[in-house]
Amino acid sequence: MRASIIGVGLIGGSIGLAARERLGAEVTGWDPSPAAVETACARGALDRGAGSLEAAVADAQVVFVAAPVGALAETVERVLRAIPPDCVVTDVGSTKRSVVAAVADPRFVGGHPLAGAETAGVEHARADLFQDAVWYLTPTETTTGTLFERLHRLLRELGAKPTAIDAATHDHMLAAVSHLPHVVANVLVAQAARALEDESEQLPATGPSFRDATRVAGANSAIWTDIYLANRDALIERIDDATRRLGEFRALLSAADADGVTAWNDAAREDRRRLLEAQLAGGTVHELRASVPNEPGVVARLALELGRAGVNITDMALYPAPNQAEGVVALWIAGDEPAERALALIAEQGFPVARA
Amino acid sequence: MRASIIGVGLIGGSIGLAARERLGAEVTGWDPSPAAVETACARGALDRGAGSLEAAVADAQVVFVAAPVGALAETVERVLRAIPPDCVVTDVGSTKRSVVAAVADPRFVGGHPLAGAETAGVEHARADLFQDAVWYLTPTETTTGTLFERLHRLLRELGAKPTAIDAATHDHMLAAVSHLPHVVANVLVAQAARALEDESEQLPATGPSFRDATRVAGANSAIWTDIYLANRDALIERIDDATRRLGEFRALLSAADADGVTAWNDAAREDRRRLLEAQLAGGTVHELRASVPNEPGVVARLALELGRAGVNITDMALYPAPNQAEGVVALWIAGDEPAERALALIAEQGFPVARA
């Protein structure tokens, strides 16, 4: 198997590592940055770097294009002009409609692995980045069946779960669960930073829930401006939906409708639980909260203890007290039995613990 | 010093523990739940429970009312009718205007400690819950000076940082940094749960950034319905502001204004940095991201290593890979020198690490 990778950052580099280790593939790569190619070779993500995009793909059987969303269509077209007829080309961009609409070639299949958005750079590449990760593929009516099948099989061998999806559905879904939350985080920090300007020079004090809610605020513009623009109609729909929902809650507030506010809030609690559960085979997600001294060693020991007992922590949050010496650790545990076990183990350590 | 506590949950119980341990106070308490009073006595948060609210406060020098926001004004009035003339009464509610407007008595000072919102129940009470915590006080022009001074001094002795603030400013600030983020989290889960209903039966796959953004969705209605309603005009202002900001971003998207989107996103990054820094004396907050195997032991060892080296982790987030076996840990470290030290220490452990 001869694979080519155009763009060797975190995703491209991880594909290279996995293809070499798991498929025994011969991997050639190219990147606008010669330093990235050098690092990728040194890390074993590439067998060799090529002098040009065209040289990198000249005799490939599969090409992965890991370029920024804004440059995808043009880069994929360049690749298509340079490859042999029996070669499949895919990309890893976070939005799919624009590239799928721009590239009509039957050898191209759009793709998007749900992995690795939190870091950048080939230094963070890992051969198992895609293990059990959903990897969306967006074939069209004109996609060559044998090439799609080859790509699908390759992704399985890389450890991923290839999942065919319509490009439009993909983009609408990502607008809801990723792009809108990023926009909203930006709005939250902007309004908070300015909320008190009329009354005081001081910035307001914020707590852990504000930090959680705004953690993705101001994510890397080099990536996100492209994503926002490529998916702008779907994102505008989500913005309009969110605006409508804010308006509905505003109306409940205006009417001082306590029952309505409670029902609205309880529905959100249920929605979050269902969304978390949909991610997991492990059953109902239980939220536990334990009061602990906020020494690094304590959370460490708790995590070790639960890990040793085979309890899988789905999600975790620390809420240090203002003095940083005490705090609450929230743990989300999937499955009734593991949650019971976690409760018992934490109590055995002498920490007050309860279901949230 | 004779102190009374009306409502012995997390906050009331912690006040009792701290008043007994740090002030040597004699603490009497009452709660609508006899079981809570019993637990509070067993935990040492009260010297004794009283048979009624009136009996609990009859010879008090200071009374803390820790009742739900919706019951505050009525409970405070009952207390004021039962106390001696030279007794100061305060509360711990999350919104301040309604109770301050309803209670004109010069012996009452509104209060709100920024502590302990993450758990409930006297089982989680701690004598040091308020150590170094901001404790807002909302005196008015009619507040008796000597009583305010007594309360202020008591709070200092409990370990807190009493901070006088206008009730309206307090409520506007909390609307921006706490109440609106809760509303927005609810909106995010509601739209995501329904976004795909037209196209599929399936709930969308969500990632760690969605979990972070919606962690407070559906917070306890028994507390939050009151908070939303008591602060509804300030919250409506924030909703309108957020709606306006969503509209501005929508306009940038509609116009496909890449420079505008980038500037908007970069401004949010800067706003979040300033808000985080405002919390801390430690200087600029640096965000580091390290790739680690997602075994509990690894994050534990990292935290222990940094703790041993005196590096204070301001905030922390885990982003497990879909396979739960690998992941990225994000660390926010305050101060240039500690951040450098953390980078070096993490690299020494053999993990790829970089500034975000």
From TrEMBL, chains A, B:
Keyword Amino-acid biosynthesis set for record: yes
Keyword Glycoprotein: no
Keyword vocabulary terms for this entry: Amino-acid biosynthesis, Aromatic amino acid biosynthesis, NAD, Oxidoreductase, Tyrosine biosynthesis
Family recorded in the similarity comment: Belongs to the prephenate/arogenate dehydrogenase family.
GO biological process: tyrosine biosynthetic process
Pathway participation: Amino-acid biosynthesis; L-tyrosine biosynthesis; (4-hydroxyphenyl)pyruvate from prephenate (NAD(+) route): step 1/1
Record field: catalytic activity: prephenate + NAD(+) = 3-(4-hydroxyphenyl)pyruvate + CO2 + NADH
Xref: InterPro entries: 6-PGluconate_DH-like_C_sf, ACT-like_dom_sf, ACT_dom, NAD(P)-bd_dom_sf, PDH_C, PDH_N, Preph/Arog_dehydrog, Prephen_DH
Enzyme Commission numbers on file: 1.3.1.12
Entry protein name: Prephenate dehydrogenase
Domain ACT: 287-356
A molecular function (GO) term: prephenate dehydrogenase (NADP+) activity
PANTHER family: PREPHENATE DEHYDROGENASE, PREPHENATE DEHYDROGENASE [NADP(+)]
Gene3D superfamilies: 3.30.70.260, 6-phosphogluconate dehydrogenase C-terminal like domain (1.10.3660.10), NAD(P)-binding Rossmann-like Domain (3.40.50.720)
Primary enzyme class: oxidoreductase
Pfam families: PDH_C (PF20463), PDH_N (PF02153)
Domain Prephenate/arogenate dehydrogenase: 1-283
